[in-house]
Design a protein that fits this description.
The protein is about 45% helix and about 10% strand. It is α/β, with parallel strands linked by helices and about 300 residues long. The protein has 2 domains: about 190 residues, 3-Layer(aba) Sandwich (Rossmann fold), CATH 3.40.50; about 100 residues. A 6-stranded mixed sheet has the order 2-3-4-5-1-6, with helices on both faces. The structure holds zinc ion (ZN).
């Protein structure tokens, strides 16, 4: 973990030391950090700290978990990750962290647009068994914004009646998409956004710069040109939804800069804020309501053109 993550996780470290670990946490924020911290915390929870360090001294210090030396830590070393399949056909519904029997990890199946209810049920079933190692148990649900209503309700039952000595860790880039009842049962850790290179910066990747240049001309595009552009997000959803998500993130960064520049120049930012609202609604409906990527792209492009004329 980097320094920022380290600082953010300090309360978690203290909660292990004080043996006051909650039954559910929400790691909220975009980027890799929230999931990396959830992995760290799950491993730290299972660590028994009774291994030996290289020089033969026992490492029982709770502040140093995971100690990487005890049998639990050796088992929870993630190693190679097996791709999941939410339908259970071409891969498992969930996986263990490393080979640790009491640490489970659920995320969207490879190429899937959802975390499926079957995956939550599989985790639930595992939690009905007794812990194998007799210590604390943890279940991570990464990509929690991709849980549909049904799966969230199944999760809610787990949160309402947490199995003994078990901690659930939800990781979500868009916690607003989770049911309020789910959120309210979790201790929340908010991760600040990682600084993304601006698509307008000279050192931004070439494709990002090209897309920014294309966006800069949007006011001049005709209706049919906008429709053509949106057509680029037509096709199998498992391909077009992630592509659109990425495009929306880039477009959001671009619009953010444009809005700031306009506001600094004393222009009325209302039209741009309006486009901003449409863009965010698009992101949300894509994640939550299985919206058609092409239609979302259309709405966003038209709102952007409106804002930039
Ligand atoms: Zn350990």
């Amino acid at each position: 973990m980097d320094e920022t993550a380290d600082k953010l996780c300090e309360p978690l470290r203290r909660s292990i030391e004080a043996e006051r670990v909650h039954s559910a946490y929400l790691f909220a924020g975009v980027g890799e950090r929230p999931a990396a911290c959830a992995l760290w915390f799950a491993r730290a929870l299972a660590c028994t700290g009774d291994g030996e360090s290289g020089d033969g001294a026992a490492v029982g210090d709770a502040a140093r978990r995971p100690c990487e030396a005890c049998p639990a830590c050796r088992r929870s070393d993630p190693g190679e990750l097996i791709p999941l399949d939410g339908t259970g056909r071409s891969g498992p519904l969930l996986r263990h962290i490393g080979t640790h029997p009491d640490l489970v990890w659920v995320e969207r199946g490879a190429g899937d647009t959802r975390v499926r209810i079957g995956q939550i049920r599989a985790m639930q079933e595992m939690f009905q068994l007794r812990t194998v190692e007799g210590g604390r148990r943890a279940g991570v649900v990464a990509d929690a914004e991709w849980l549909n209503q049904e799966a969230q309700n199944a999760l809610l039952r787990l949160l309402e009646e947490p199995p003994p000595a078990t901690t659930l860790l939800l990781v979500s880039a868009q916690p607003a998409g989770l049911l309020a009842t789910v959120r309210s049962r979790c201790q929340r850790l908010q991760f600040p956004p990682e600084r993304k290179p601006s698509p307008l910066a000279a050192d931004a990747p070439e494709e990002a710069q090209a897309e920014a240049a294309r966006l800069a001309r949007i006011a001049k595009l005709s209706e049919s040109e906008l429709l053509d552009w949106a057509e680029e997000f037509r096709g199998p959803r498992q391909v077009t939804a992630p592509a659109l998500t990425e495009w929306l993130a880039l477009t959001a960064a671009w619009l953010h800069e444009k809005t700031c520049t306009a506001a600094l120049a004393g222009e009325n930012p209302d039209a741009r804020l309006e486009a901003w609202a449409v863009l965010n609604a698009g992101r949300k409906s894509l994640a939550q309501r299985n919206a058609n990527p092409q239609m979302v792209a259309e709405r966003v492009l038209f709102a952007l053109r409106e804002a930039m004329v």
